[in-house]
Design brief:
Blueprint: H1 3-20, H2 33-42, H3 47-51, H4 60-65, H5 68-86, H6 89-97, H7 100-111, H8 119-140, H9 145-170, H10 172-175, E1 176-178, E2 185-187, H11 194-217, H12 224-244, H13 248-264, H14 273-292, H15 297-302, H16 312-320, H17 338-347, H18 358-390, H19 396-409, H20 422-431
Antiparallel strand pairs: 1-2
């Protein structure tokens, strides 16, 4: 098949996916496209990279300053997002009041700019981190929140994954990258590197696995077959790309998370919260033991890791000794800048720009104070996702899976509170608590006298409930 024909087929496939997943009853806001666009950029490449504007050499100046076009795009999306939230003051205020730990952490990140060596650069990165929260709030304060969540997960997946397959198979100049030293080819699809391709396949694949499982269980639904086809196709693409991209960390996380989706969906498990707590703890402890304590060298080899975790432990030894303020850190997103970056790049010519461990990254930038605040955020986040699961909310099992895989993913990659990092956006979506609307208090009506009813039986007017139906008949 020629690239031109393949492009037409891909476009038809994308339109078909949207058609198969349609829901005429959904009433989501058009503003939902703002976080969708934000997530599309976070999961692929920046606008300047797509348009090939400016140079993209791996240099320190480029890493620090970024691109003016990208800055304009991100700032515009953030500004429009804030305007949308300004029109939802009551809903936004309720959500913000219920998520104090997240706001406290974000505020601490802002305060840490005071002791950053590069406060200007750090502030620009902090605004992107703020943008992640704004986009999540747009989704969670939508008037049709359940369908907004589904569309937020589906729309980017229907675009990013089919186009990635197209690029990999028919446009190798766009869908593949080559190592600077050995010239080895890597599959990247629409992403900027193979790890990011693994991330979008992991999290969007999980979203489609959740939708596929839900559709499978709804045997009497008229749209069941359509949804099975749409999300089965995305699930197949995600698994195929996880395999060929050799993104074994993301593949291992996907296996763990889908196993948890299936396990927590069993009716025999739902009434037993202790079973879920034990399952979550076991997954975290076993994963940490395999990665860091040498519990199973063969398991490490299976996911393409050696005892040094592909030189990660050597980097960790170097950078831990470079943090001169263990209590407060170097400031938000400020460690990998200036003389510290010079020294690291003089040792590792391939130019690392992160610690490849989310917990260590927080320690380097925000110190033990930041680690403590992160622990509070995660503890509160687990209570939120578990409460959603206990209340049998449709998203409960997915939030649990996102939470567990988010913690495990950060063992070998840095994703906590990192600007425009899809792994962090999905974790933030799961742990953000949305309080239930209070039930209105219904004041009993005074019985009408015979005179007031003109001798006829009174017509009792019943107050409607939140679903628009009478509370009683």
């Amino acid at each position: 098949m020629s690239p031109g024909i393949a492009t037409v087929v891909c476009a038809i496939l994308i339109l078909g996916l949207f058609w198969l997943d349609r829901d005429p009853a959904a009433r989501t806001s058009r503003a939902l496209w703002i976080p969708v666009l934000w997530l599309l950029l976070a999961g692929s490449r920046s606008v300047s990279q797509w348009l090939q504007v400016g140079t993209w050499l791996h240099t320190q100046d480029q890493y620090m300053e970024g691109n003016p076009l990208d800055r304009l795009v991100y700032t515009s999306l953030l500004a429009v997002g804030l305007v949308v939230l300004a029109y939802r003051p009551n809903q936004v205020a309720r959500v913000l009041r219920a998520n104090g730990p997240i706001l406290l952490f974000l505020a601490y990140c802002a305060v840490s700019l005071l002791w950053s060596d590069f406060p200007g650069v750090a502030f620009k990165r902090w605004t992107k981190a703020l943008g992640d929260l704004v986009m999540v709030l747009i989704v969670l304060t939508d008037a049709d929140r359940p369908n907004a969540i589904k569309r937020f997960l589906a729309r980017p997946a229907f675009l990013l994954l089919p186009v990635s397959v197209l690029f990999i198979k028919y446009y190798p100049d766009l869908g593949r990258a080559y190592g600077r030293w050995e010239g080895k080819a890597f599959y990247i699809g629409v992403a900027s590197d193979k790890n990011m391709l693994g991330v979008i396949c992991l999290f969007f694949g999980l979203g489609s696995a959740w939708r596929f499982l839900s559709a499978y269980q709804e045997r009497k639904s008229a749209s069941r077959t359509r949804r099975l086809l749409a999300h089965g196709a995305i699930l197949t693409m995600a698994l195929w790309m996880l395999w060929i991209a050799n993104s074994m960390t993301s593949l291992a996380c996907f296996v763990i998370a889908t196993g948890m989706l299936l396990t927590t969906a069993f009716r025999s498990v739902k009434p037993r919260p202790a079973v879920v707590h034990v399952l979550v703890a076991a997954l975290l402890v076993v994963s940490a033991s395999v990665l860091f304590l040498g519990l199973s060298p063969s398991a490490l080899a299976t996911i393409g890791r050696d005892p040094t975790l592909t030189d990660r432990t050597a980097i960790w030894t170097l950078i831990i000794g470079m943090n001169n303020n263990s209590l407060l850190g170097t400031g938000f997103e400020s460690f990998w800048l200036g003389p510290r970056l010079d020294k690291i790049w003089s040792v590792y010519a391939w130019g690392p720009t992160e610690a490849h461990n989310g917990y260590l990254e927080i320690y380097l930038s925000l110190g033990w104070a930041g680690v403590a605040l992160l622990a509070v955020v995660l503890a509160r986040g687990y209570r939120t996702v578990f409460a959603a699961y206990r209340r049998n909310l449709p998203t409960g099992t997915l939030w649990l899976a996102y939470f567990v895989v988010g913690l495990i993913y950060n063992f070998t990659e840095a994703a906590f509170f990192r600007m425009m990092q899809p792994a962090w956006i999905f974790l933030l979506l799961a742990i953000t608590r949305v309080p239930e609307l209070p039930h209105p208090k219904i004041r009993p009506r005074r019985p009408l006298s015979v005179d007031e009813t003109h001798g006829h039986e009174a017509n009792v007017v019943l107050a409607p409930n939140l679903m628009g139906q009478p509370l009683s008949t």
